[in-house]
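Subject: for your reference before the review

Hello V.,

The reviewers asked for a structural picture of the protein, and I figured it would be easier to keep everything in one thread rather than splitting it across files. Below is the amino acid sequence we used in the manuscript, unchanged from the supplementary table.
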Amino acid sequence: MGLEEGEKAFICGMLYNLGKQVVLFYLPKEYADITKLVLKNATIESEVSKSVLGISFEELGIAVAVN
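And here is what came back from the structure prediction:
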């Protein structure tokens, strides 16, 4: 892997969970609620985050990255 491709992979890795990281840092209570619901109902985070926040982690991450 060339240096340029390695840098792209590193940045993509950092941003992959950006929405989840934003919620974890700025909205810890909501993140705890999402985690409890995921464990309780055996559902996926994107569905639960959308019901708790009104937006999925992925959508939030994209919105933050674009702006």
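For the response letter, the relevant points are probably these. Residues 8 and 14 are 10 Å apart (CA to CA). The chain has a mean pLDDT of 90.

Happy to draft the paragraph if you're swamped.

O.
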